[in-house]
Design a protein that fits this description.
mainly alpha; elongated; 4 helices; 81 residues; 58% helix
């Protein structure tokens, strides 16, 4: 995926300096920053009981078409080959 980003001169100077320091292209510095930021994002924490209930209801609704497994599917001997 390709994005075009307009950066102010101060940011481009920093980006060029970082790229030169790391020995990579400026695009690689941006790619690394985006990737690191994406990995640091945590899923939302539902603080109230009502928020947790709404989240569980949304999860259940989104997964209605999943097959219903018998209890034996969760036995230890069936989980591991």
């Amino acid at each position: 995926m390709i994005f075009t980003i307009d950066l102010p001169p101060g940011d481009t100077a920093w980006l060029d300096a970082q790229a030169k320091l790391l020995g990579v292209e400026p695009a690689e510095v941006i790619r690394k920053l985006v990737h690191e930021r994406a990995l640091s994002i945590q899923p939302p924490v539902h603080k109230t009981a009502e928020e947790r209930i709404r989240a569980m209801d949304a999860f259940a609704k989104a997964n209605r078409k999943l097959p219903i497994l018998p209890d034996s599917a969760f036995d230890r001997e069936n989980l591991y080959d």
